[in-house]
Amino acid sequence: MIKAILFDKDGTLLEYTEGWVDSIVEFLEEKTIDEGKKKKLFKEIGIREDGGVEENSILSSETAMDLAMIFSKYLDEDLREIYKEIDDHLLNYLKENNNFIRETCDLKSLFEILKSKEILIGIFTSDNYRQAKYSMEYLNLDSFIDFYAAADIYEKKPNNESLEVFKEKYTLKDQEIIIVGDSRVDMVFGKDTMKVGVLCGTGSREMLGKYTENIIDNPSGILKFL
């Protein structure tokens, strides 16, 4: 019996928008970096020449610290200082560009149904806590969320630290949990949990199909697995 559903955020609950690319471009505008190095940096973090984002790339599925580690190779700044700058910049950019916070489906209706079935709802994201919390508050969805697992609180996915904390807090077994996401790290996170891939993010059906046969268009389709 399923008792909890853990959702990835960007590309799963929220559209993976051009805002994330724009935020990186804006961040680098304040730095001294030539166009050649900038092009290499973009490629390394997963920004394509057409402005799109590669599936399973650093930008699509890794953390602010992972971005900082790449940036530190191109910028003459301390890693920790770059990390703090990126973390603050991404949050401020989100607040100044709320139009980029867009749901992939009617999340309020979905969450209301899940709560009526007494299903626990968690967000397991590669973003930091402040960005995840702000996004849910902006959409008036924070009250539905039982657990936030963010990259600045726990070891990043696919490390199971956050999952083990969640399981212990609510006395759950892996087999009672569904993990929903659009990337490889989501699909290999939690060995014995049920995996459901969504096509509303950066992950392709071909890629997701390597890890699960449970593939849906967006999170609203999760109800058929309950």
TrEMBL record:
One of its GO terms (biological process) is DNA repair. One of its GO terms (molecular function) is phosphoglycolate phosphatase activity. Gene3D superfamilies: HAD superfamily/HAD-like, Putative phosphatase, domain 2. Transmembrane segments: none annotated. Keywords: Hydrolase. GO terms for cellular component: cytosol. It holds the Pfam family HAD_2. PANTHER family: PHOSPHOGLYCOLATE PHOSPHATASE. This is HAD family hydrolase. It comes from Peptoniphilus harei. The lineage of its organism: Bacteria, Bacillati, Bacillota, Tissierellia, Tissierellales.
